[in-house]
């Protein structure tokens, strides 16, 4: 069996993989080549290099392991037509992303950016506008692996967590659940609104003008899912009209964000360049998911962890 990685794990991660599966022919490259794709039985990729054109070379390919949670850049139709199984690393981002979100929330609540600015100007001032996180309410759109983890951390700080998904069914570390149809009614009670929703047709521009109008003027709005959640013109209007207190954004409709985009300079907006999931342990955690699945695959089993339904987009 030939397994083609389109990225190179560090030697300390690669060597144990080779030792555990001596019967497998592993190929490691930085980037995708059609020549290697023709020979591959299994492809391991971050999901951004495979296209509808290049997949035509993958005549032997039966399984694609995506070392990313997002699959929206992959040629879904072409993959489905060829009957190729796809699995990903859903849940791998929960630790770094939850920590990133909590860091931003605490920084705003405890006026950390203001303190840093005071240090730059060497000004001794106690006029910081500091509030407490305890006894707040957080509305979490998409309480899956990532949303549940940030819910767990927020509950430890005495925050009431309300999850919101399509069905309204229970999710871990949520004190209450609502469905998408109940979203407008839930927003006025939220001090923090966090989205970690994936990119699907249903989530595209899910939040509209009336949703921001329903939020508290002090609300911290955070988008750490996908940039399609809200039309950026609607978001900018809400910020300028002071319908919300803060916007912390890790994702955008078009990335990278252009240097002249108004979000860079609007007050109370934090622009994070889609890095909340970054961690020195990323590939390590990816391989922790890949290895058990590969063990099953070598036995002829296909009930792998995190099998993706490409028709639904996740």
From TrEMBL:
SUPFAM superfamilies found in the cross-reference section: Formate/glycerate dehydrogenase catalytic domain-like, NAD(P)-binding Rossmann-fold domains
InterPro entries (alphabetical): D-isomer_2_OHA_DH_cat_dom, D-isomer_DH_CS, D-isomer_DH_NAD-bd, NAD(P)-bd_dom_sf
Domain of life: Bacteria
Domain D-isomer specific 2-hydroxyacid dehydrogenase NAD-binding per the UniProt entry, residue ranges: 102-276
Identification of the protein by name: 3-phosphoglycerate dehydrogenase
Domain D-isomer specific 2-hydroxyacid dehydrogenase catalytic as annotated: residue spans: 18-304
Keywords of the record: NAD, Oxidoreductase
Gene3D superfamilies for the chain: NAD(P)-binding Rossmann-like Domain
Family, similarity comment: Belongs to the D-isomer specific 2-hydroxyacid dehydrogenase family.
GO molecular function, one term: NAD binding
């Amino acid at each position: 069996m030939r397994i083609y990685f389109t990225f190179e794990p560090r030697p300390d991660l690669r060597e144990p993989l080779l030792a555990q599966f001596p019967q497998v022919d592993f190929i490691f490259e930085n980037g995708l080549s059609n020549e290697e794709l023709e020979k591959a039985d299994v492809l391991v990729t971050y999901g951004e290099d495979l296209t509808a054109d290049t997949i035509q070379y993958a005549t032997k390919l039966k399984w694609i392991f995506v070392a990313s949670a997002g699959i929206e850049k992959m040629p879904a139709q072409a993959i489905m037509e060829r009957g190729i199984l796809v699995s990903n690393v859903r849940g791998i981002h929960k630790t770094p992303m939850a920590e990133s979100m909590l860091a931003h929330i605490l920084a705003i609540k405890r006026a950390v950016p203001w303190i840093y600015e005071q240090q730059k100007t060497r000004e001794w001032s106690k006029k910081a506008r500091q509030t407490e996180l305890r006894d707040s309410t957080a509305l979490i759109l998409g309480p899956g692996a990532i949303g549940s983890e940030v819910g767990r951390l927020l509950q430890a700080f005495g925050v009431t967590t309300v999850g919101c998904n399509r069905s309204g069914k229970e999710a871990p570390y949520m004190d209450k659940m609502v469905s998408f149809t109940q979203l407008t009614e839930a927003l006025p009670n939220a001090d923090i609104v966090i989205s970690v929703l994936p990119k699907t047709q249903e989530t595209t521009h899910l939040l509209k003008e009336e949703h921001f109008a329903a939020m508290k003027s002090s609300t911290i709005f955070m988008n750490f899912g996908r940039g399609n959640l809200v039309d950026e013109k609607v978001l900018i209007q809400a910020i300028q009209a002071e319908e919300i207190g803060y916007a912390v954004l890790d994702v955008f409709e078009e990335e990278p964000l252009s240097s002249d985009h108004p979000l860079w300079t609007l007050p109370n907006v934090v622009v994070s360049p889609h890095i909340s999931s970054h961690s020195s342990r990323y590939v390590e955690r990816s391989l922790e998911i890949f290895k058990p699945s590969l063990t099953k695959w070598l036995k002829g089993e296909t009930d792998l962890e995190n099998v993706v339904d490409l028709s639904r987009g996740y």
